[in-house]
Amino acid sequence: MSEHEKFKILVSAFIDGETTPEEEAAIKEHIVACPSCQKLLKDTRCLSSLLKEWPDEPLSPDSECEIKKNLKSQEGPKMKKKSFLKKTGIAIFMVVIVGVALRYYGQRALQGRLKDSMAYLQTAQTTSSRQRGQITQVAEKVEMAVSPVRIARSLGKSLTTRDAARRSRTDDIADQYEPYYLQAEMKSKRFEEQYDGSIQEQSQGIMIDVNGNFISGYEKFNTEQYDRIYENPFLKAMENPLSTFSIDVDTASYSNVRRFLNNNQMPPQDAVRIEELINYFSYDYPLPQGEHPFSITTKAAVCPWNQDHDIALVGLQGKILEEEEIPPSNLVFLIDVSGSMNSSNKLPLLKSAFNLLVDQLGANDRVALVVYSGAAGVILESTPGDQKMTILNAINTLNAGGSTAGGSGIKLAYEIAAKNMIEGGNNRVILATDGDFNVGVSSDGELTRLIEGKRDQGVFLTVLGFGMGNYKDSRMEKLADKGNGNYSYIDTLKEAKKVLVHELGSTIFTIAKDVKIQIEFNPAQVKAYRLIGYENRMLAKEDFNDDTKDAGELGAGHTVTAIYEIVPVASDETFGNVDDLVYQKQQVTGGDDLMTVKFRYKEPDDDMSQLITQSIQKDAVVEKLTGDFEFVVAVAEFGLLLRDSKYKGAANYDEILRKARASQGKDAFGYRSEFISLVEKAKAIDMRSLNKGIQFKGRN
Amino acid sequence: MSQTDEDLIAEYQLGNVEAFEDLFQRYKGPILNFALRVLSNRADAEDVTAEVFFKLYTKKHMYQPVAKFKTWIFSIAHNACMTVFRKQKRLIPMWFRKDGEGGYESWDVPDDQDSPVEELKKKEQQKMVRKAIQQLSKDQREALILREYHQMNYAQIAEVMSCTVDNVKVLIYRARTCLRDRLAL
């Protein structure tokens, strides 16, 4: 490289500000005498500004959706499908939307802009219309010009019949995640025609949300809510003898699934948490005797959807508190009163639900009420539970959209709980919300840390979800987990009764915390096993003995059931192939046990865990399922069908119905018969199993 | 309130998916445009973008706070582009030379504010700039893009491209020389 070239390189670096002071001095000295370098300097600067002429391009909403979908499916990005039809459909649909908007607003200026965009659309379509990208650009352009929501906003009108003045910021946030067709306030016939209240299966139907972004099917609706569930696979007992997980008493998934089926739609697969479906119901496990707060039941039977496999059940029954054992409660209700809570399935339902709860409290209990809606405030200072009129007054006069003074909602709630702490009592914050989590803490991380901190001081958290469009379901669940609490989704007064009356004790009294289960399978009897459900509860095997690792809480009277699908050792099936170890020899000690089950739990105010062990023999396997075991298996089978699981084997709706009917039992509150009707609904609307060929009237 | 990238990734590593969404919105543009300019192909660029965010989503723990987040995410993008190049070797090199085929001259949106003459000149110029950049060698192209369009300093570029600062200096110089020749400056 010549000397001169070196200088030229320095000049280039100089323009980028990457030269040392010495180099800079050298350049300055050289350039005085060198016209070619002077030209170089000028030209390079010209070049830089010329390059800037190349503008950035935006990521189209479709691509963004695609990418997010890939993330959720965690299968990695696929090659883009050149769905030309989809793009044309979107372009045409935008025109339709524009037509609708025009009928609504009929402004001349609008028509003018529309004509321009239409002209562009037409030219785009008649010229090189095979270009995928062109249509997208056009669609974006048209969307930007005539998005009905933007128009509405600019005209100061509300797109819904809800009074614009009553909309708060939280409404806007809620709107982003609750698509139009779900809002009960959507009285407009026109929109009902378009959207028809139905959530289509993916990739059918095209909707827009508040910003005029496209949502195909319910992808946008679906994308931000559920953590993807990777089903537990079959694991070889020889290589993975330990299965470790935390218990879960949440039941929100069942309520959620029920809500979809009652709307005649199949629930999204990731909304189906099988353990929550099973744990929704109560079972007749024996009450605990003795020192431990729960009893353990183990059963085994032949697996109904795969005759070559077995099913093993592990059930916990928490103790019920006697009258004199019920500790006094220090409750703080933290209630979301933003404008979006106004619909009939939210704040009014919440009020009724809390009325029921307060009815059961006594003189030794205390209740406080904190509301938040942007700002937060104390509506009711901590009041003894026998002053029911005072408390009920405070609750019943709550209005959505009211603004209050004060600090952040959740900090406030915890402060009040701490101030009125009852030693050895039940100190709990009960959060009631429709999913918009603006509790005044600036970030999720901070919120989590706050809750974890308070949990360590002995204040627990119960989360009640009301009427949400499922947004932040996973966030609510995580919050309840971090706060040593439980999460229920209350969609009807009946569910409110279940959670806050019939099962109030279980909802608010914790009898054991950080309950973990570790099962060791015996390779002499079990070839492989699969835990059904609990996918987002799995723990590392070391976490079992690690008392610092958080796990689920057991409420008084709660039952927890876990089932495994087991492949007996005599089976011919193979599960993957791992080379034999060179440095370790594996020795199976044999025996007739299928597995040994170990539990660790802590007393509610203790930090050291205690261990219980029990084993299941192989001769415990029975041919026929009976009683509660049969019902549990029916629910699990239903879960597998809803998830369209690859492990569903020969699972089918008729079998589920038969088993559920046979094991319906006493069913004092009708929860099991409700389950049966849900199964019938699902059977009727599940498109995936319709391959029976042409059917005839009366011949099904 | 505005959090730094490093704050957001730290939060995401703790499990907060909102932080991921924020990062996604911040970087979807830069990453897409980086890949677009380096690869000259919209489909590939979108694949790279998807790949980068997939890696971010699933391998968040790979990020250590010693590096700046921007350089880290761009080095993922760099690697993804390299993978594309390796695959491309099997394709006919002429693919990227044809106008309007896989290239993005067709994506142009006319600017309402320009008069037709202005617009045409601008479009011509943009086309020339793009063609000239496409004809650079991939290393020169990448270094130049990181410098001119993403305002990275030489140290950062060196980190993203896994080479030395001196290499970067020379690459950028040579890229500029080529461009000046082609664009007759």
Descriptive labels:
heterodimer; A: 700 residues; alpha/beta; Immunoglobulin-like; 4 domains; 6-stranded mixed beta sheet; 19 strands; globular; B: 185 residues; mainly alpha; Rna Polymerase Sigma Factor, Chain: A; Arc Repressor Mutant, subunit A; 2 domains; 8 helices
Structural features, described:
The complex is a heterodimer of chains A (700) and B (185). Chain A has 23 helices and 19 strands. Chain A is α/β, with parallel strands linked by helices and 700 residues long. Chain A is 38% helix and 19% strand. In chain A, helix 1 (3-15) runs parallel beside helix 3 (35-51), helix 5 (84-105) runs parallel beside helix 7 and helix 14 (347-358) packs antiparallel against helix 15 (388-396). Chain A has four domains: 3-51, no CATH class; 84-223, no CATH class; 235-321 and 512-572 and 589-688, Immunoglobulin-like (Sandwich); 328-485, von Willebrand factor, type A domain (Rossmann fold), CATH 3.40.50. The radius of gyration of chain A is 31 Å and the shape is globular. The longest helix of chain A is centred in the N-terminal third of the chain and has 22 residues, at 84-105. The model of chain A is unreliable at 78-82, 124-140, 142-149, 151-167, 169-225 and 402-407 (pLDDT under 50). By secondary structure, chain B is mainly α. Chain B has two domains: 1-107, Orthogonal Bundle (Rna Polymerase Sigma Factor, Chain: A); 111-185, Orthogonal Bundle (Arc Repressor Mutant, subunit A). Chain B has helices at residues 5-13, 17-39, 42-58, 69-88, 116-134, 138-148, 154-161, 165-182. In chain B, helix 1 (5-13) packs across helix 2, helix 2 packs antiparallel against helix 3 and helix 4 (69-88) crosses helix 7. Classes of the chains: A alpha/beta (700), B mainly alpha (185). Chains A and B meet through helix 1, helix 3, helix 4, helix 7 and helix 17 of A and helix 2, helix 3, helix 5, helix 6 and helix 8 of B.
